[in-house]
Structures are given as C-alpha cells and as structure tokens.
Specification:
Low-confidence stretches: 1-34, 283-287
CATH superfamily of the largest domain: Glutaredoxin
CATH architecture of the largest domain: 3-Layer(aba) Sandwich
Helix content: 40-55%
Radius of gyration: 32 Å
Oligomer: single chain
Largest sheet: 5 strands, mixed
Number of strands: 9
Number of domains: 2
Shape: elongated
Strand content: 5-15%
Mean pLDDT: 75
Length: 287
C-alpha cells in the first residue's frame, strides 16, 4: 500500500510513498514478560505500530508486550517550526527533554513512548519521526480515525501534549503534569538526572488508574458537573426546561401563597397585640 502526498513531481504528478518506508528496524528493548490478563492495546492503537523509519510496522502486541506505562506524545513537525518563538521553544524543549527522559531511564523501567503525529504530509512526518527512538502510529488506512479517537477521548486540546496510559489495563494514569515533570527531571544535573527520572516514573506507577475519559477533567466538582452537562445536552435541555416551567408556573403560585400567608400572619399578629393591649388597659383600671 502507498500513501499519496501533497508534494508531487515537477510535472504535477503526486508522489506515492510506500507505507513500509515510514519505519526503521529498531526493536524496543523489552524484558518484562506479558501476562495473560494484559489489556489488548491494539484496541487503542491499531494492529501495528512503527518502530522507526525504514522497516515495516510491527504488531502492536509484540512491541508493547513488556511495557508497563505508555506515554502518548501528541505533536507534529510544524509545532517545532512555528513563527511564534515562545511556542516553538516550548515544542522543542519538550522534544529534547523527552529524548533525554527516554534514553536515560524510561526504557529500563518499562516505559514506552508512542508518537501521535498530526502531520498529513508523509515526508514531513518521516523527517520528524526519524529523529525519535520510540514508537509511532503509522500513516496507514484508518490511522486518522485512531488518532482522532485518542485525541478526543483524552481531551487533547493543544500540542505538544503528553498523556500516560497503563499498558496492562489500558487505563488513564492521572499524571496531569507529565510534561513539566519530564522537563524538570531531564534538566537536572547529570549525577541526579537518572534518579529524578526514575522517581517520576515510580510516582506514575503508584497513581490510581482512571477511565480514559477522565483525562483532561478538572478535579473541581463544580467544573466537572458543568462539563458533564456540556457532554450531555439532552440532560441540560431537560434541566433548562424545568427551570423555565418553575419560573412560569410554580414561582407565581409560591409568591401568591407566601403573600397570603404573610397577610394572615400580619392579621393574627395585630389581633394578638390588640388583646394584649386590652388586657393591660383593663388591669390598670381595676388596680
């Protein structure tokens, strides 16, 4: 199978690049034996993953069989070429820190990274991915659907973004500051760098697991309730209808009810005060 790119030959004919050219033969270093109950990660990432740029894609289960944590790296080559210097520096610093993180200790502690690129032009993706030693979702048929599903489910709103997944259960690891943690650990002095990176990985391993849909959710209960309503417009419409019904039908009746009770209470209070005054007047006369 081949992918047609936007860039063509001089005569305008589109260039077709075999999908097999998107990978290279760097098998990840694996040592943890897969367990029978491990989650089928092909359900999330598709049947095959790239291991580099020159060899065919490898089965997802094979390249991830000894992995405990997966770091999903949402980015694109153009993130590193932005005109905005601040955004460009941010993208480049993440990529540099991630390389240091991966090469220093991540693989030795069963952490794998999967590139989820937004590049639509094969040459740009290939050039970008060639600088990376980790895995990637291939530019194959259905890959765009897989990438869109992951980005939507994990609430990825900006690039670059890093999301941690438990490779054994397919669940979300709520390492909400993963990007900052990696940048900080990778920037530590050489003698402390490995120790800091291992500490970050161990912290992730000890975090409670959550459904994938929990990614990107605020811990504030008010915000979470609001986001729940936004994701369930039918329920939101029902609540708004009840509020409108209350204002139009029930509220006037309640106002009328309290007004009547207030009038009755005022009359009763006046009667009681009159009786008290009469009793006091009578007592003074008798005395």
């Amino acid at each position: 199978m081949a992918v047609t790119t936007r860039r063509g030959k001089k005569d305008g004919t589109p260039t077709k690049i075999p999908l097999s050219s998107l990978v290279q033969g760097k098998e990840p270093k694996l040592s943890r034996v897969a367990q029978p109950g491990d989650y089928d990660l092909s359900k999330l990432f598709g049947p095959n993953l790239l291991t580099a740029v020159t060899h065919p894609p490898q089965p997802t289960g094979k390249v991830l069989q000894n992995t405990e944590l997966i770091l999903l790296y949402f980015t694109a080559s153009y993130s590193n070429k932005k005109d905005d210097n601040k955004k460009k520096m941010n993208a480049q610093s993440v990529n540099t820190a991630l390389l240091e993180f991966y090469n220093t200790a991540a693989k030795d502690h069963y952490v794998e990274i999967i590139l989820i690129s937004s590049d639509s032009i094969v040459e740009e993706f290939e050039e970008f991915y060639a600088t990376m030693p980790w895995l990637a979702i291939p530019s194959d048929t259905g890959a765009a659907t897989i990438k869109a599903y992951l980005a939507t489910t994990l609430s990825v709103r900006r690039q670059p973004s890093l999301i941690v997944i438990d490779a054994k259960t397919g669940e979300y690891v709520p390492a909400t500051d993963a990007k900052d943690e990696i940048i900080t650990a990778a920037a530590a002095p050489q003698q402390q760098r490995r120790e800091n990176i291992v500490a970050v990985i161990n912290r992730w391993k000890n975090l409670p697991r959550q459904p994938l849909s929990a990614a990107g959710q605020s811990q504030n209960p008010v915000v979470r309730f609001f986001m729940f309503l936004v994701k369930n417009p039918v329920l939101l419409f029902g609540i708004m209808s009840l509020i409108r019904l209350f204002r139009q039908k029930m509220l006037p009746e309640l106002v009328k009810y309290f007004d009547n009770n207030h009038s009755s209470a005022s009359s009763l209070s006046s009667s009681i005060m009159t009786e008290i005054n009469n009793d006091e007047t009578g007592s003074d006369t008798e005395f």
